[in-house]
Every structure is written in C-alpha cells, then in structure tokens.
C-alpha cells in the first residue's frame, strides 16, 4: 500500500510520538496485532503508542501521506477480528491514553481518554457515589474506545441500554486527519446530523475515538438476583412478561444446562439447587422495599404454579448474589478450553424461543456430535451460540464445518429479521455475511460514508466493509 521502506516508516513514526513509544519486537507485534479471535495470524509492521489526540492526528496524517493502513488497538477483547493487523498495518494502541481527564458532579459526566479500562471507569464512578452501568465479563481489560467502537452492550442492557446511550460527547480523529469535537457534552443539541453516532459502532473504520465524555447515574440499591430453572425455552418469555409487569429488572440473562455444567465442573461455584432444568434464567432487580421483595416472591410462586418454573433460588447476601452471577459469567472461560466457535446474534425479544429452537435443530441435525452451548442477554434478544470442537476433530476441519453452520444460522437470522452481530461488531469474521442483515442499498450508503471520512481507506482497512 505504501511506497517507502518499513525502516523509514518506523523511524518517522518515532518522531511523531514520545521516545520509546514505537515497538517492533516480536512479542509486541504478536500481542498488539490481534484480539481474542484465533483465525488470523497477526503480522503488523509496528505498534505505535500515542499519548494525546494530537499525536494520533500526526500518525493519521502521516499514514494518509504514505497510504499506510492503521489498525486501532484497545483491550483486544473483541471476538470479530476487528483489532487484527494481518497485512503489515501499523497498530495504534491506546494503552497510554488511559487518563480520566475531568469530572463534573452537576452534569454527572466524566471525560476519559480512549484507553481507560471499563472497570477503571466503573471504579471512578463509584468513588464519586455514582454508577457507570455498561458492564460485561471483560470489564477488567476492555477499553472505552473499543467499547464505543463496537457499541458494546453486556449484561445490563435491559435496564440501561448500550454504550452509545451513555455518550455525552466525543473527540475523534477522522481518516483525513481532522480532529472533531462532537456534541460538546450537550444534553440538547438539535443542529443537524449527530456525528457521534456514526463513530460509535464504526469499528475504527471512519476514524479513531481519542476521548469520550460519559454520563453517569445513581448507584442501584440492594441488587438481588433470582436463578430460575425453566421447563422450556418458551418459558423465558412467560417469566419475563410476568416480572416486568411489576418490577423494573436490571438484568435478564439465560443459559442452558450444558452451559452451567461447564461452570460447575470447575468446582468454584455450587449448583443453585438440586432440580435439573434444560434452561435457566437469571433475573436481577433492586430490592428497594419489602413490597418489591413480596412482589418478586408472589410472581415466582405464580410462575411455579403455571409450570413455567421448576425450581429457584434468591440471593440473600452480596456473596450469594456474586455466586449466582458466576453461573452465568463463568461460562465463556469454562468453555474456552474446548475451542468454541462463537456466534453473537439477535432478534426482537418476542422471537427468541422460536429462533433458538430453529437454530438448535439445524445444527444438531447436521452435526449431532457437536456440543451446543447457549447463553446470552435474552432480555434484549441477544443470544450467544457456542459450538464446541469435538476432541477427535482437528481445528481446521472444525472451523470449515462451522463456516457451513454460519450460513444456516444466518439464513434463520435473515428470516427473523435479526442481526448477525448483536454486540461484538463485524470486523473480519462477519464481513462476508453482512448482507444477511443489511440490504445492498444500505451497504452502498455505508461505503459512501466511509469514503467521506476515510477517502484513502487507511482506517482499519478490510474491516466491516470494503470500499467501492
């Protein structure tokens, strides 16, 4: 793509950032050139570590001049290869742009650099007596810029929404090298197109987010969890409707018995109760009064009488609350040793049971020896389909068969007017399937927008969409 030597590029980059903030050693190239996906071999040219928006701008302008591809790197917890540099690109790591810059108590906002880790933001909010509600299993390592670039959701979406719902303002460096201050943290700003929302979820293909002003809210009170054993997947909707009539849930998750089995096998957390059920629901709510708890128990008893719930348990302490959550949040780690093939898909909430059953039947029919692990944020229609590699099958053959599974799964997604990527982005792994969710006309508009902000196609090239 570029016309100057790699040595010259590396030397020039070293002049644009602070001393020692360009790395080319093999360990750094391997570490910062990939995310959690294992399908692509990282082959970046170099890793550059800016500390300011102006340094990012200098790198982008240099890349424009010499037509060098740039790949953003945050916590690298992505699952769609959006942060993979496999073609000699320069990786722009936000590792050192990790400062909380400004807090405003009256506005309940905090301005952060893009490399602030999710848990760091959550802890800062707690120190101010406030709450940042976007939460997920990778909160200890994922970074704010990456969260916003994929519009991350997580476990609290049913109550608090997605990452984009908490953004008051953004500072971005576009693919042309311009610095834009978007929305200026205003609550009301009706002056045309809100460009914030183009960069949120754009996976770094239009420009790089360097700073974000995030909204905070009050801390929830006395969080309480229920884990319920369900007789059938359709009962998830029966239970959800029953509880939502009287209680504002902060989370509504589900997982299959097979999924819980892998967590229990680790021995770190006990089974919630003796009764076995094919599926489980985890509900969380604020127990702010005796009336709320009385309502919850009355709804639970009604669900048992209806035959929707086989058994259940409610947390009586913070330790019990955490243990019940570990049944759900420990799934990904517990199945990781089995080389899972992951799909992150969504439909409107009411379609979930039929949708899940269709997919389950198709995969089981064609590959009866594949173990299917279901879990997800069922309260917002987001399902995580994980297919585990059989021990007697090599990785290449397994992934080849899963590519066929993708086609079947996404045909069902398309029929139900769902999304092939609910919260992990498109990156490289989902790009060829984008047409199952987006029309050709929509994709043409996406390409046009890409060209406006990144005419040289240097910003995370090859991810999400290809230029026209």
Automatic annotation (TrEMBL):
Source domain of life: Bacteria
Matching PROSITE patterns: FAD_PCMH
Top enzyme category: oxidoreductase
InterPro entries: FAD-bd_oxidored_4_C, FAD-bd_PCMH, FAD-bd_PCMH-like_sf, FAD-bd_PCMH_sub1, FAD-bd_PCMH_sub2, FAD-linked_Oxase-like_C, FAD-oxidored/transferase_4, Oxid_FAD_bind_N
UniProt KW keywords: FAD, Flavoprotein, Metal-binding, Oxidoreductase, Zinc
Oligomer and partners: Homodimer.
UniProt-recorded name of the protein: D-2-hydroxyglutarate dehydrogenase
Native species: Oleiphilus messinensis
């Amino acid at each position: 793509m570029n016309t100057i030597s790699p040595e010259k590029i590396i030397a020039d980059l070293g002049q644009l950032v602070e001393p020692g903030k360009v790395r080319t050693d093999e360990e750094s190239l391997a570490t910062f050139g990939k995310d959690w996906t294992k399908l692509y071999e990282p082959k970046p040219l170099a890793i550059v570590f800016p500390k300011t928006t102006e340094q990012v701008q200098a790198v982008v302008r240099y890349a424009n001049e010499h037509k060098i591809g740039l790949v953003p790197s945050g916590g690298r917890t992505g699952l769609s290869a959006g942060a993979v540099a496999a073609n000699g690109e320069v990786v722009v790591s936000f590792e050192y742009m990790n400062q909380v810059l400004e807090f405003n108590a009256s506005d309940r906002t905090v301005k952060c650099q893009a490399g602030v880790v999710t848990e760091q933001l959550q802890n800062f909010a707690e120190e101010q007596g406030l709450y940042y509600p976007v939460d997920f299993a990778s909160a200890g390592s994922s970074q704010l810029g990456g969260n916003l670039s994929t519009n991350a959701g997580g476990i609290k979406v049913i109550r608090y929404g997605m990452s984009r719902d908490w953004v008051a303002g953004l500072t971005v460096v576009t693919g042309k090298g311009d610095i834009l201050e978007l929305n200026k943290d205003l609550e009301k700003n009706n002056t045309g197109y809100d460009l914030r929302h183009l960069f949120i979820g754009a996976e770094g293909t239009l420009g790089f987010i360097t700073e974000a002003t995030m909204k905070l809210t009050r801390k929830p009170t006395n969080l309480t969890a229920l884990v319920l054993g369900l007789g059938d997947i359709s009962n998830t909707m029966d239970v959800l409707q029953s509880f939502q009539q009287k209680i504002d849930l902060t989370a509504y998750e589900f997982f299959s018995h097979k999924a819980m089995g892998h967590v229990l096998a680790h021995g770190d957390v006990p089974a919630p109760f003796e009764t076995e059920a094919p599926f489980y629901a985890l509900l969380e709510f604020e127990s702010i009064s005796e009336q709320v708890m009385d309502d919850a128990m009355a709804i639970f008893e009604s669900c048992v009488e209806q035959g929707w719930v086989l058994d259940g348990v409610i947390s009586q302490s913070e330790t019990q609350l955490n243990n019940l959550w570990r049944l759900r949040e420990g799934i990904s780690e517990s199945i990781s040793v089995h080389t899972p093939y992951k799909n992150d898909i969504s439909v409107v909430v009411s379609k979930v049971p039929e949708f899940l059953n269709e997919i389950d039947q198709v995969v089981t029919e064609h590959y009866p020896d594949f173990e299917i692990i279901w879990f997800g944020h069922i309260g917002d229609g987001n399902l995580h389909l994980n297919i585990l590699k059989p021990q007697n099958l090599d990785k290449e053959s397994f992934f080849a068969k899963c590519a066929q599974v993708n086609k079947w799964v996404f045909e069902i997604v398309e029929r139900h007017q769902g999304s092939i990527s609910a919260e992990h982005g498109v990156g490289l792994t989902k790009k060829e399937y984008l047409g199952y969710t987006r029309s050709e006309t929509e994709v043409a508009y996406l390409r046009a927008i890409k060209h406006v902000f990144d005419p040289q196609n240097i910003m995370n090239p090859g991810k999400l969409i290809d230029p026209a």
